[in-house]
Amino acid sequence: MSKKVLIISSSPRITGNSARLALSFAEGAKVAGNEVEFVSLHDKQIGFCKGCFACQKTQRCVIHDDADTIREKMLTADVLVFATPIYYYEMSGQLKTMLDRGNPLFIADYTFRDIYVLTTAAEDDENVPKRAVSGIEGWIECFEKARLAGFLFCGGVTDVGDIENSSKLNEAYEMGKGI
Predict the structure, then answer these.
(1) Which terminus of the chain has a lower count of CB atoms within 10 Å, N or C?
(2) Whole-prediction pTM
(3) Which UniProt keywords apply (predicted)?
């Protein structure tokens, strides 16, 4: 059965390593017959959550920017994929801000169930993505019908293009193909 897959790339570099990993995942998901949309946050205007919680009554944020459109796409996706570079052992600020602005989804009739996390970092120790994944898992825990369905880390990639020689691109492709 075909699924609606939304991939959110939070790399500030449009051709960055985590974006490339996400594109490989997207290729696999498309080959498997899924409807795939790729959204890059690099050029989006997304303001910080004000913590007013008005969205918990209205299901809409009081801030109107690119987060509105992205959040609506998240609402109707079957599968969410978050791709982020690891900075200072955490997810990118762009992704964290978008997750915070997803607060109206909490009370909505969201359709996403499976969530995948793709990460890259300059360091290659297996513990590098631990905090980033934990932060995303915290967000997922707020959505009782959703689960972390898969995770992929590619370390040792710093400069744009470093990932091109990594087997992780094929792993991302296969992960996408398997959804």
Answers:
(1) N
(2) 0.96
(3) Flavoprotein, FMN
